[in-house]
Specification:
This protein has 315 residues and is mostly helical. Helix content is 77%, strand content 3%. It contains 13 helices and 4 strands. It has a two-stranded antiparallel sheet. Helix 2 packs across helix 12. The two termini are 26 Å apart. The relative contact order is 0.18.
C-alpha cells in the first residue's frame, strides 16, 4: 500500500515532465524540423502568450473562480494601444493607459464576484461579451496599424538571442511564484479556494483578495495584448479569441483543481509547455486545426478526471 502511495505521488509530481519528454523524443525521431533552432524559437514564442495568461488564470482558479474575459482584455489592450500610437502618443504612456483600463476590467470582475455575489462563470462571461463589444465599437471594427519600432520590440525583439516575449514570460512566472509561495497574499489565495468560510472566520479579507486576483489576471492579459499587438504590428478588435480556453487548459493540465485550493504555478508551467509542444507537433504533422481543438478538449477532460480521482470525488 505504501509503495502504491509513493508511486502515485511520484506520478503526480513528475507525470507532466514525462509526458513532455515523450513528446520531445517522439517528434525528434519523426521530424527533422522539430529540434531545429528556428522551431524551438517558434515554440517558445508560441507558449509565451498562453503562459502569461495561464499565470493569472492559476491565481483565479486557485480561489475557486474562473476568468473568461481575458481574451477580451487582450483585444481591448491592442486597440487602445494601437489608437494611441497612431495619434502620436509615446508607446510607454500608451501602454500605461491600456494597463489602467485592463485593471478596471479586472476590478469589475472582482467586484461583481466578491461584493455583488455573481458566480464567476456568469460574471466573466458577461464581461467577456461586453469587452469584446467595446473593442469593436472603439475601433469601429477595424484594426489599428502600429509602426512604432520601439513598441514592436515587445513582440518581435530579442535580448541576448532570447525572444523578448519569453523573457517577459519568465518574469511573470517568477513574480507569480514568489507571490503565491512566499507572501501572505498567496496563502490567502489558497485559503479562499480551500474553504472561503473558514478563511473569513480566520480574519482573511476574502472580498479584497478575490478582487485583487481578478485584477492580476487582467494585468497578465494586458501584457499578452501588448505582445500580440507588437508581434503582428496591429491592434485587432478580434484579437485574443478563445485565448481563455487555452489558459484554462494549461492550468487544468498542470494540476490546479477547478474547485480551488490545490495547485501550483510549477504545474501550470508544465501545462502550457505541454500544450505548446502538442500544438507545434500537430502543426508539423499537418493535423487539421479542428482536430487540434478536439485534442485540447480531451486533455481538459482527462486533467479534470484525474483531479477528481486524486481527491476521491465523484461528481
Amino acid at each position: 500500500m505504501a509503495q502504491k502511495k509513493d508511486m502515485g505521488k511520484i506520478l503526480r509530481q513528475f507525470g507532466l515532465v514525462f509526458v513532455a519528454l515523450i513528446i520531445i523524443i517522439f517528434m525528434s525521431i519523426t521530424s527533422d524540423v522539430f529540434l531545429t533552432s528556428q522551431n524551438i524559437i517558434n515554440i517558445l514564442r508560441q507558449i509565451s502568450i498562453n503562459g502569461i495568461l495561464a499565470v493569472g488564470m492559476t491565481f483565479v482558479i486557485l480561489t475557486g473562480g474562473i476568468d473568461l474575459s481575458v481574451g477580451s482584455v487582450v483585444a481591448i489592450t491592442g486597440v487602445i494601444v494601437g489608437s494611441l500610437l497612431q495619434s502620436g502618443t509615446n508607446w510607454f504612456l500608451a501602454s500605461l493607459a491600456a494597463l489602467a483600463i485592463s485593471m478596471v476590467c479586472g476590478a469589475i470582475n472582482g467586484w461583481l464576484i466578491s461584493y455583488v455575489g455573481f458566480q464567476p462563470f456568469i460574471a466573466t462571461l458577461s464581461t467577456m461579451t461586453i469587452g469584446r463589444g467595446f473593442a469593436q465599437v472603439y475601433s469601429n471594427g477595424k484594426p489599428y496599424t502600429i509602426s512604432d519600432p520601439s513598441f514592436k520590440v515587445i513582440g518581435q525583439g530579442n535580448f541576448l538571442g532570447i525572444p523578448v516575449p519569453i523573457i517577459l514570460l519568465v518574469i511573470f512566472c517568477v513574480i507569480g511564484m514568489i507571490i503565491l509561495t512566499m507572501t501572505t497574499f498567496g496563502r490567502y489565495v489558497f485559503a479562499i479556494g480551500g474553504n472561503i468560510n473558514a478563511a473569513k472566520l480566520s480574519g482573511v479579507r476574502t472580498q479584497r483578495v478575490q478582487l485583487m486576483v481578478y485584477v492580476l489576471s487582467s494585468v497578465c492579459a494586458w501584457m499578452v495584448g501588448l505582445i500580440l499587438a507588437a508581434r503582428i504590428s496591429s491592434g485587432q478588435p478580434t484579437a485574443g479569441e478563445s485565448y481563455e480556453m487555452d489558459a484554462i487548459a494549461a492550468t487544468a493540465i498542470g494540476g490546479t483543481s477547478m474547485n480551488g485550493g490545490i495547485g501550483s504555478l510549477t504545474g501550470t508551467i508544465c501545462g502550457f509547455v505541454i500544450l505548446g509542444l502538442l500544438q507545434n507537433s500537430m502543426n508539423l504533422m499537418n493535423i487539421n486545426s479542428f482536430w487540434q481543438q478536439i485534442v485540447k478538449g480531451l486533455l481538459i477532460i482527462i486533467a479534470v478526471f484525474l483531479d477528481m480521482r486524486t481527491k476521491g470525488k465523484k461528481n
